[in-house]
Amino acid sequence: MSRQPEFRSAMEELIATLDLEKLEENLFRGVSPDVGWQRVFGGQVIAQALMAAQRTVDDDRFAHSLHAYFMRPGDPSVPILYQVERIRDGSSFNTRRVVAVQHGKAIFAMSVSFQIEEDGYEHQIAMPAVTQPEELMGEKEFKELFMKSAPENVRRYWSRERPIEVRPTSLVHYLTRDKLEPRQDVWVRTLGEVPQDRRYRNAVLAWLSDMTLLDASLYPHGTSIFDLKLQAASLDHAMWFHRSVTFDDWLLYTQDSPSASGARGMTRGSIYSRSGVLIASVAQEGLIRKKANA
Q1: Is 133 helix (H, G, I), strand (E, B) or coil?
Q2: Which of 83, 209, 234, 273 is catalytic?
Q3: Known catalytic residue: 234?
Q4: Given a cut of 90, is residue 141 above it in pLDDT?
Q5: What domains appear along the chain, each with residue ranges and CATH number?
Q6: Do 218 and 176 meet the contact criterion of CB atoms below 8 Å apart?
Q7: Beta carbons of 107 and 73 less than 8 angstroms apart
Q8: Active-site residue 9, yes or no?
Q9: What stretch of H or E contains 51?
Q10: Nearest CA to 214 among 201, 228, 231?
């Protein structure tokens, strides 16, 4: 009898995706789950590249920042090779460069800096006061209200079980074409257990940091990434890991877009714990271009 494939939850699928295969020293291979998109989710490539870099540093070194560029769309039907270059190994800091390759061409490049844990000055900006997640619409209700009018690829993606639940504090941009302020606050939480290994936790945080980020740059223009006339894609991504993250509660992802020009939108984000601790900061520029035939 043929063996039935083992069922895995969306979070188990994500963790398996982050468990890269080591092919050679400094060379790793990752695969992409079938989520219905024609290209690989940018957050997946960031997270896998971070995992590759983390596997080349000592256990007492943790990522404190990463800076990445997306150069070509990833093909989800074939594996991605991650080539790690050991730029520097210092007494406190390590630097790695990772290039992701498919079909013989670079699709993504990222620099990551690692540091041993040290004591020092501490301060942070305060978390904004927002509506709590329990008072907001859940994803089940959201799908019932909005997915019927969404593009086919969006419906296909949202119909699948996902490892992260998202609850925006406002749904106005789904209901109107009005031009809104270029900012949003989004609660996010993991659906399933994340390993206690800090490397996996940082990779999952990097994965979710690419979610919803371009949206704020479109609000002032009365449109969204669901617009079929729009070509939207991440161009670059930077992230700073301030403090260790746990996934035992909701995280607040605050976002604002200070500028859009030249068919590009720039967005900044801050990720807080439910108790108000600033976990990470994010910055990204994305392509927001009207299609030629639109």
Answers
A1: helix
A2: 234
A3: yes
A4: no
A5: 10-117+137-290 (2.40.160.210)
A6: no
A7: yes
A8: no
A9: helix 42-54
A10: 231
